[in-house]
Design brief:
The protein has helices at 8-11, 14-52, 60-73, 76-82, 91-102; strands at residues 107-123, 126-139, 145-158, 162-169. Helix 3 packs antiparallel against helix 4 (76-82). A 4-stranded antiparallel sheet has the order 1-2-3-4. It has 2 domains: 8-52; 60-169, Nuclear Transport Factor 2, Chain: A. The chain is 44% helix and 31% strand. The chain is α+β, with helices and mostly antiparallel strands and 172 residues long. It comes from Cryptosporangium aurantiacum.
């Protein structure tokens, strides 16, 4: 006598397939939630960093010092960070103009010194600084050193720190 085979619902193990499908769906759903969450956190962090930017120097004198130091080093990145927001896109042109106008062909800038002589407050957010800048250049052919004074007037503006917005070279 033979035993009858079990009914198909008992041998097909459909409950196992359903459990695997549920587990797969749950894994996909959790993965999607993790990706969306990480993208959200990354975006929020990027926006906060971009909006806050860098904080400038605490005083107008420090802003002028940083400006002139970056100019002496011929560092475009540092120079750009010393300028106020509307002038930053012009940083490369401003630095090139200073370098070409203040140091002649065949000369090399050896040293640059400065002294802030006067500070005039226009408002709580705006200060005008008079600065005596001296460029020491060396003639490449003769190795002769020459010091040239350049009085400058700078306008420093306060916006999350102090930044230089206007630069004028005064006549001697």
């Amino acid at each position: 006598m033979r035993v009858a085979p079990p009914p198909p619902e008992l041998t097909s193990r459909s409950w196992e397939r359903r459990r695997k499908r549920r587990r797969r769906r749950r894994t996909v759903l959790l993965s999607l939630v993790a990706v969306v969450l990480s993208l959200t956190v990354t975006t929020v962090t990027a926006v906060l960093v971009f909006r806050s930017g860098s904080v400038g120097p605490k005083t107008p004198q420090a802003a002028a010092e940083k400006f002139l130091r970056s100019m002496a080093k011929n560092s475009i990145n540092e120079f750009e960070q010393t300028l106020c927001e509307p002038k930053r896109h012009q940083a490369g042109g401003i630095l090139r103009e200073f370098n070409s106008g203040l140091v002649d062909v065949g000369q090399e800038l050896e040293d640059m010194s400065w002294r802030i002589t006067n500070e005039t407050r226009r408002s709580a957010e705006e200060v005008e600084l008079d600065v005596d800048v001296t460029f020491a250049v060396i003639e490449k052919r003769t190795q002769r050193r020459e010091e040239t004074p350049f009085p400058m007037r700078m306008q420093a503006v306060k916006d999350r720190g102090w930044y230089i917005c206007e630069i004028q070279i005064l006549t001697l």
